[in-house]
Each structure stands twice: as C-alpha cells, then as structure tokens.
Specification:
Distance between the termini: 36 Å
Structural class: mainly alpha
Largest sheet: none
Number of domains: 2
Shape: globular
Order of helices and strands: HHHHHHHHHHHHH
Strand content: under 5%
Helix content: 40-55%
Number of strands: 0
Length: 328
C-alpha cells in the first residue's frame, strides 16, 4: 500500500506492521512504546492453549498474562471480544458459533432497516454534509454540491429526523478518525466505521451520537474483520462508557471522573494541583477528552489499546475503572 512503508520496530518484532502508519504522518504520530515481551505478553500460542478441547476458556490464566504484558496485535480482536464480556469464557466453541451467527443476523437486519431509510448505509459510501433540513423538509439539490444522496420527501417522524440530521456529523468525525493509519486510506473502511456508528445511533436514541464515540469504535473496526462482530464489540464497550457521553444543561458525563482526577492529583502531587488552581484549571476541564475517549488521542494506536486491555483485565467485572485511568 502506497504511503505505508514507515513502521517502527520494537523488541525485535515489527509490531507497527500490524497497524501501518502513512509515511507522511510520521512526524504527527506519538512514538509507540508497547513491546511484545516473551513470557509476558499474551501470544497466539498462549491464547489458543488457554482453551479446552470443547472451547472453555481459562480466563484467569489469560487475564494474568494480559496484566503482565498486554496482548499481541495478531490476536487482539478475538481476545477483546472476551475482555468486553461479549462471550462467556465457560461457553463452548459450538455455543459461541451459534451466538455469533445470531448476532450477525440481528446486526444485518438492523442494517437493512437503516438502509431502507438512507440507502447509503451499507453502500461503501457515507455523507459529510446534511441530507435533510432541520425542519424535516428536503434540501434543494442545487444547494448541496457533490452530495452522494439527499432525502427526497418530508420527514415527520421525530426519531427518524434526529437520526438523519446527525449522519453528516458522524461522517465528518469518520474522516478525522485515526487518519494517520493506512487502514483508513480506504473509503470502504471509513464507510464501515460510519455504518456501525450510524446503526448504533439509530438503536440508541436516548444518547444518540456524541463526538468521541468514533474513537472508541475505530479499534473494533480495525481489529475485527466482520462488521457485525465489530458492532457487537463496540456495543459492549459502550455499555460501560455511554455515561461518559451523556451531557445535560447542568452536568457532563465525565464530571465524576474529573472530580476523581482532581482528588488523585491533589494527593499524589499537591504542588501540581495548586499550580493548576492558580491557573484557574482546578476543575480539570482540560482532561475531558482524555477521560471521555480513554486517551485514544494522547497515545499511539498500539499504546492506547495496551492501556485499555491492562486496565480492563485488572477489573473483575471486565469494565473500565475511572479511578484507575485517572491514576494512569
């Protein structure tokens, strides 16, 4: 792939080769520090050895290995499905196959439902401009240049209208997501991310779409080949993170975490806390993005995933602990 020659070599293995970076983006990407360590990192061999003959997984053994050295890039996707609670470690291979097939059927049924409203869903294309006016009336085609598709009739259903209105914002965020990775040089891969976010938004009107969800969803799209599997992994992640994105007129989703971060810094480094207070930064609002998207934009792709998996594996319920992230 053109522009993908640049890779880092760490610990004798070309780990960045699993997620190649566009050569022109080299200067803008944080240096990856994660290294695959023999005897500590969960390797493909150790992962497969953790299953019994019929498919039961020794989860405690796997978690201990992840806590010691993370997950090797070659198996991150399949391990994350278990880490996020998508599959019961006590289930068998046959039981998981049936569940996977059922979930895929369900996802593609939802996708077909969305496609009937907006044909671009599942087409390999996506929108970055409005497809309908805020009052539900069709836009004049002459007023929107280079638009792939526009709503042709009035939309009166409030839920449908709200969903259609946010699709362009999802598209704008998609083209900004991990754009330094060669993976997203492909418009079809960007469209897969847009599809998953659009369908999740349709199914969850109570929270809808909020900027930052794209950063949580992107790794799932990259790690899991089947779009339905990526959706369900994202859905599992959002069960634990959705409150981060819930904002009202009086509060923000990460407000509790900001307060926790303030307490941690005040305890660990009182002078830094006082300095931030003097700069009128004592409310730690500068950390909103870090906590909302779990440091996705502060670290390289590999390092962010390493952070996620070690924190999640350290929690008995397989959920991300705000206090742990604050301390990190």
């Amino acid at each position: 792939m053109i522009g993908c020659e640049f890779m880092w070599k760490l610990g004798g293995e070309d780990l960045q080769g699993y997620f190649p970076v566009r050569s022109e983006c080299q200067a803008d990407v944080p240096r990856t520090r994660f290294k695959s360590r023999a005897g500590k990192t969960l390797s493909a061999r150790r992962w497969h050895a953790a299953f019994t003959e019929d498919g039961h997984l020794d989860m405690e053994r796997v978690l201990r290995r992840i806590q010691r050295g993370g997950i090797h890039p070659s198996i991150k996707g399949e391990v994350w499905e278990f880490l996020l609670g998508g599959y019961d470690p006590d289930s068998t291979f046959d039981e998981r196959t049936k569940l996977r097939n059922h979930r895929r059927e369900q996802y593609y049924a939802w996708k077909e439902e969305c496609q009937k409203m907006v044909p671009l869903v599942g087409s390999g294309k996506f929108v970055t401009m409005a497809i309908i006016a805020e009052d539900g009336q069709p836009l004049e085609e002459s007023s929107v240049e280079n638009q792939e598709w526009l709503v042709k009739t009035s939309v009166t259903d409030k839920r449908v209208l709200q969903w259609m209105l946010v699709l362009s914002q999802i598209g704008l965020d998609v083209i900004r997501t991990d754009r330094y990775l060669c993976f997203y040089e492909s418009e079809s891969n960007q469209a897969r991310l847009w599809d998953v976010l659009a369908i999740y938004t349709w199914l969850n009107p109570d929270i809808g779409y909020v900027q930052g969800m794209n950063d949580i969803c992107s790794p799932m799209i990259i790690l899991l080949e089947d779009e339905a599997d990526a959706f369900w992994c994202f859905e599992r992640a959002m069960r634990r993170l959705r409150e981060n994105f819930r904002t009202t007129e009086t509060s923000m989703g990460v407000q509790t975490q900001l307060g926790m971060l303030s307490q941690v810094i005040q305890t660990v480094d009182p002078r830094l806390h006082q300095h931030l207070e003097d700069l009128d930064g004592g409310e730690y609002l500068f950390a909103i993005r870090m906590l909302m998207v779990l440091f996705r934009r502060e670290f390289s792709f590999l390092d962010a995933l390493y952070l996620w998996e070690t924190v999640v594996s350290d929690d008995v319920g397989y959920g991300v602990q705000s206090k742990q992230l604050c301390i990190i």
